[in-house]
Amino acid sequence: MIFKLNPSAGQPLYSQVVQQVRHAMETGILCDGDALPGIRTLAEELVVSPNTIAKAYSELEHAGLLELRHGSGAYVIVKRRLKSRAERTRAAQVRVQALVESLHADGFSGEEIQRMFAAELFYDASLERKP
Amino acid sequence: MTDGLAIETHELTKQYGNNRVVNQLDLRVPERQITAFLGRNGAGKSTTIKMLLGITSPTSGTGLVLGKKIQDAAQSRDLRREVAFVAEDKQLYSYLTVEQLVRFTRSFYADWRTDAEARLLKQFQLPTGCKVKALSKGMRTKLALLLALSRQPRLLILDEPSEGLDPVSIEELLHEIVGAVAVGATVFFSSHQISEVERIADRVCIIDHGRLLVDISLDEMRREYRRITLSFDVAPPEIRLALPGIQQVRTSGRQMTLLARENADAVIELTRDLHPVSVEVSPVALREVFLETVKEAQ
To answer: Which residue of B lies nearest to A43 if distances are taken between CA atoms?
Structure first.
């Protein structure tokens, strides 16, 4: 799978990895039993600290989404719950699409819409956070 | 990571005449992590590194590197066997050829890896028959890096390792750093290249006028630092937000921006009472943290 990490985003790199793996599972890009690269391989590929990948994998393992086999890599575990989530994700995408289209129709540019979404999500995330 | 510390200093100080170059520095570099050491020119980075390696002795204070006392000559010699170092000036024996220098250096170290040496010679495209004094600055840096990276040290200390390197070589260098940490090394490096630091570092220490101003993991920085912009339809209220974690407040026209080091959620809650027409929260990149920290210190 192809990872896209943004070092300037307000989110730790390890949680970007976690989120992208989760998303790939929800959308069916990653299936049950698929292998992910080993920690060193992925760290070198993405040119990030190996600790970032180790932390991401350990979090995914803790959540029961990844099985780490010593020496042979990491394997994806997709549960049935996730499969139904994959369908919900697809439905949500349709809703987002419709909303974006209607905002476009109201004369908002893609950039403006993106900014509104980003601000809303950021505001949300900051308030949700508990120390 | 629950490993110990590879470097630990306590009130480490270096004074030249009346000039305190390093001022009561308490530095803590965790093992098996990549720690970046940032600061302006003359902030005290290289002097700190020289003290860690016994190249210059501290005026006062103490330090441990890999558990060994830096002030003790015998312990300092022992620790250097386990440390690979690339100096800022990349001084090398200029009358030797590349091949002679590699062979010469190899003979000193038990942890030399001939496979890594061969790979790096090829990767860095170093002219083996060429005299060191005829090498360009970038090539000399690559040679200095090869001499350090061909070993398998417990600790790699690199003083501005990417200075003068082309983008391809920088990428190769970062790759090597990641690989070294993957097999258990600790990396401590100084740099002015914020974008490369932001990509590979686990932690960042910012030093200015010899004092440590920031010591934070980049995960924590990404999670905690926030720029909060409040917009008003009247002139912004003149208030002092006395909350811990607010590093700076600036007003421009009908807008006000706050830089929060922590407590962003509490700050946002509080700003609601000011009735802004909009509140925008955005992440803060390392470049901004660095610039604001250094500016604040002046």
So the answer is: B178
